Task: structure prediction
Amino acid sequence: MTAPPPSPLADLLRRRIADEGPLPLADWMALCLGHPQHGYYATRDPLGRAGDFVTAPEISQMFGEVLGLWAAAVWQQMGAPSSVRLVELGPGRGTMMADMLRAARVLPGFRAALRVHLVETSPVLAERQRESLGGAGVPVAWHRDLAEVPNDPAIIVANEFFDALPVHQAEKSRDGWHERRIGLDPDGGFVLTLGPADPKIAERVPEFWRIAPSGTVFEWRDEAPVAALAQRVARGGAALVIDYGHVDQGPGETLQAMRGHAFADPLAAPGEADLTAHVDFFALAATARAAGAAVHGPVGQASLLKDLGIEARAAALTAKNPERANEIDAALARLLDTTTKTGMGRLFKAIGLGDPALGPLPGLPAGLTTGPTETAP
Ligand code: SAH
Result:
């Protein structure tokens, strides 16, 4: 591959690979997205039409509004405490939180109890969040990690957060499983390489899949972020995680780069494209359960949003703003689309993690029934 255009991040990655050898894919992804000066999120607001991708809260205010109702219902299930933390992981432009807080006005006791905490590493997006939430009328604090949020009962939401966390990939060859790493070609371009056959890497592949043809790829994420989230809510509160991904665990690679709303080469321009990969909801549920949380769902996004009343909300919004009827209809159809595998209503899933004492969470059925299957994601 030809060398990418020079950039501070490409230079830094090239030097690091020259000094230390090929970089595990997860480290590559972490640096491309999260390098504090030159990473993708540190240097831009990637959302919206002028950016690289559009998320559900940016499609319609209805998305955040019904999640606000979800949070209010969970607060009631918690016994309507006089103080509760509402935490969002990776809040983007702050749009979803602003919409949630507006919807929360229907329950003044809930709004009065709220302390909002935003977990965000991007200074550019934190600034956008300050603009969106400046007039919200509730206390808002920013943190770089969930561990910094005071550890008491919390309602936690995350939309398109986990897909941005680094993935590891293992590739099977005749002599075993190898970690996928990023190396350098003679022209200074970045290329995919394989580490040595490694039994430790093989152990990360579910036993069911270890005997697989050469070329099979398996992807996974570190468990720590999900475990930390689950441990926290297991002691009081609940979390709602919405993301694109699969429930049936199996081999296959899903890492993708998006630039200007089109797919790009994940190695071509480090730090200039969004890198994400499917969330493995089976693995997420297993980690959360092991950490002591009750797991609810996952369900398709369409199912959650309909259950939370998004269609009634759309009708009310249209009645108030008849001139916006077409726009509201189109947004609703996009959020609820289950007609294709990539429709948002189907590709995106919602899973609830909660204090087992709370019982079922709004919009989510109890328990996950699927496991490793023979269908690739
Ligand atoms: N939830 C928003 C934004 C999704 S984009 C929406 O739906 O529109 C991913 C968000 O996660 C961005 O705000 C990004 O800056 C943030 N982010 C990515 N990695 C992070 C990390 N390790 N810790 C905290 N925030 C992170």
User: Anything to note?
Assistant: The pocket of S-adenosyl-L-homocysteine is lined by residues 34, 41, 47, 55, 57-58, 90-92, 96, 119-122, 125, 159-161, 164 (CB under 6 Å). The chain has 15 helices and 16 strands.
